[in-house]
Amino acid sequence: MEISNLKRRVYGEHLTPIEVFKKFIRTEIIDKIYNYIWADLFAGAGNLILPILELVPENERIKFFKEHIFLFDIQNEMVEQSIKNAMKYGIPRDIAEKNIMQRDTIKDYPKFLLKLNLPVYHITNPPYLYIGYIVKHKETRKYLEYFKGENEGYQDLYQLALINDLRFGVNRMIYIIPSNFLFGFSVSNKIRDDFLKYYLIKKVIIFEKEVFEYTGTNVCLCFFERKKVPRHETISFEGIKIGRKEVQKRMYVLDPENHYRAGNEFEEFIRDYKAFKPLKVEYYLTIEDVEKNKGDYKVEVIDANAFDGKEYKRRVINVNKDLYEKIQSNILFVRTLDTGSISGRAGLYKIKEEFGVDAILVPKAKYRTHPIHIFIEPSLSVDEQILLMNYFNLLLEYFREKTDSEFMTTYKYSESDYTRKYLGLSQVRELIQTFPWLELDDKERIEFKNLVDSKNVEGILSFLKNKKEKCKLSYFIY
Q1: b/e string for 364-393 if b means 16 or more Cβ within 10 A?
Q2: CATH number of 3-263
Q3: pLDDT tens for residues 192-211?
Q4: Predicted local distance difference test score (pLDDT) of residue 1
Q5: For residues 54 and 33, what is the distance between their CA atoms, to the nearest angstrom?
Q6: pTM for this prediction
Q7: Which residues contact 336 (CB under 8 A, 6 or more apart)?
Q8: Do the Cβ atoms of 319 and 293 come closer than 8 Å?
């Protein structure tokens, strides 16, 4: 790894372009600049604070800087860069050096700021370093001490930055942080539960295009304001989503019952409409399965671990009758990752139709992003599996449209016509398990099939709701 890239990973450092301040922050604070101490505890080159000086007349900048601007960074070279940038605004070096300091602010919070004459307004792009990465790399394990004691349970350095501001009573902050703060599950539940008891989100700008030069980390710009009385309550705010080609606005409602997670409609559906008799789902045909079931039946497969950039390598395996029949009776695979084309979005597809073989073999490592053979119990006929496929894809696209795919994970930025997303295997299983086929009588099956074949999503949702109520009533009576 190159030295510069290694340093970025060690410090979780992603320097903020100055344009972020000018386009998205400046108008929010322009009438408040004399009312606050403007601080960045993870300042990097100072690009989120120093441009405030452009709003100050040149003959007043030195006085303003002395009284209103304080920058910190853990790296001496970043402190030096901030000092040089301050000098470009007319601040003498000796004065800049007094208010731009080297400091590990996660470990040693600059409490002296809280004793100054004005309240602190913290604008920052804190370090992003997930604890799972920290544990695995010797050069970052020193940070494990940060996650002990009162910080136990948090999952990322940026979360520690947020919780420090909470503990020291900062009232207003603007943070550039990973979008998983809003949309993540277990990685973000604790920080949202703890933090949003005390803070409102006034506005969010979600970036679905590249912001930083060296990372595709999905980020959002969050404007926080401390509540007068801490309490768990529903939080509503406007979100502005900026993609490569368009800007969208929508209202978000965060419910404490769902750990304040945004884009929750899909999760509510799979939770509320799980079938009373759900299908069982297994993933992957592995080389271990083949070795345990050797025989004389030939099966043509693609090798999921051998992709040459255009297609997967084809091969023939020999298996016994039991595995042969299991393979032949399960015709579907899941594509968890959007390819970028409209016809290649995540969903369920027929193996034979897509690859011209009977199965997808994983001879080496299992990867969640390659095509995955799925096995369903109890066994469904070919027609029933096609019905399941159509149902699954119809509902998936419905919720993608409704939530702008926010229940899925953004894979990476690209030149595609839409933002590529990843669908988790647990989400695949849970959506399949809303398929109510096993609990329907013949008449209901005809009605349900007609709704799916006609792509009547609203009719399907109404059908599922009515069926759920009937099942609950029958269970209660029984």
Answers
A1: eeeeeebbbbbbbeeebeeeebbbbbbbbb
A2: 3.40.50.150
A3: 999 999 999 999 999 876 66
A4: 35
A5: 11
A6: 0.73
A7: 346, 368, 369, 372, 422, 423, 424, 425, 428
A8: yes
